[in-house]
Amino acid sequence: MLMVMSNPINLLYAKYFCDAVRLGSITASARANFVTQSAVSQGISKLENMLKCTLLARHPNQFRLTPGGEEAVRGLSELLKKADNLQDELAENNGSILGDLSFACTHSFALGLIAPYLSRFRLENPRTKINFQCIGGPTKIMHLLKMGIIDFGIAPKVGDFSGFEQTYIYQGSYGLYRSSQLQDEKELPFILPEPEDTTTFKEAYLREYKKEPEIFLKVGSWEVVANLAAEGLGIGYFPDYVAQKKQHILIPCYQNLLLPKYEICSLHLAGMKIRKSSRIFLSYFQL
After folding, report:
1. How many Å apart are CA 155 and CA 109, to the nearest integer?
2. What pTM did the predictor assign?
3. Looking at the chain, which residues constitute the CATH 3.40.190.10 domain(s)?
């Protein structure tokens, strides 16, 4: 016998809720959906009635999911993604792109490389909404993917990516860079990223010069390392793409040292189909 749900899920309310989780507040969800905060709050309350589950722990100045909310955002995000995929498939015949472009990448990649690709996508697909998050590292990106908040992520290939499909989209190498205003690099100490593994650099330096490198500072950001090197405070160690935006003030040095290479990959949940908009955006990165 065919059963009909007495309270079918309203996709608009589901989107209000998922956007609030993705963006971190009711206010941000209202802004993203061009409605009032009251409309989002009422929509989420109606969604809770439909699901017969409290989704948010309501405390002043605090946005926090209940255990049921954690489970709901995964299922509802998958439901919204399937709806987007259906729209994509129906739109294939006329060549249009429907559904958001929703992804996250690391801060360094966002600052160093993402802008021209986003610019091209926006130019070619002006009607497609872009939801882009810039966050700390692969672990956080994988969490957003598991929660269904983003369609794909872009991150360096480090750690265990089991359970995710990976496609390599960019590669390069680490390098040592100093300010173009300085002449004698042999007198400069080194500025290293932390907690990045710099063992390969230290071993290469020791082999070549028979002494340990002088470390002036360890900093938890490639961009900060690059900025300090550009100011002449030392020689920075970071990926070549970080240096691209500062080519006029940073020059490579110690190029005789054999330093490690890196690979950047796109990630999405294994067995899940990503949206057409995502596939088009990722096609811009061709090794």
Report:
1. 8
2. 0.68
3. 171-263
- Name the pairing type of β-strands 62-65 and 215-219: unpaired
282 near 169, Cβ under 8 Å? yes
| Close Cβ partners of 149 (under 8 Å, ≥ 6 residues apart) | 18, 21, 22, 73, 77, 102
pLDDT digits 0-9 by tens, 139-196: 889 988 887 788 899 998 877 888 899 999 999 999 999 999 987 788 899 999 987 7
Mean pLDDT, the chain, rounded, equals 86
CATH level 2 (architecture), domain 171-263: 3-Layer(aba) Sandwich (3.40)
Residue 126 CB-density burial (10 A; 0-12 exposed, 13-18 middle, 19+ buried) = exposed
Q: Where in the chain is the domain with CATH 1.10.10.10?
A: 1-82
b (16+ CB within 10 A) / e for 239-265: bbbbbeebeebbeebbeebebeebebb
Both structure tokens of 248: 């006029």
Q: How many CB atoms lie within 10 A of CB 232?
A: 13
254 φ/ψ sector (left φ>0, alpha ψ -120 to 50, else beta): left
Tell me the three state secondary structure of residue 182: coil
Between the alpha carbon of residue 123 and those of residues 32, 73, 81, 111, 132, the distances in Å are 21, 31, 24, 20, 16
Question: Which residues neighbour 67 within 8 Å (Cβ) at sequence distance 6 or greater?
Answer: none
H or E element in which residue 77 lies: helix 67-91
Task: Give the Cα separation of 281 and 131 in Å (integer).
Answer: 13
Q: Assign domain 1-82 one CATH number from 3.60.20.10, 2.60.40.10, 2.170.8.10, 1.10.10.10.
A: 1.10.10.10
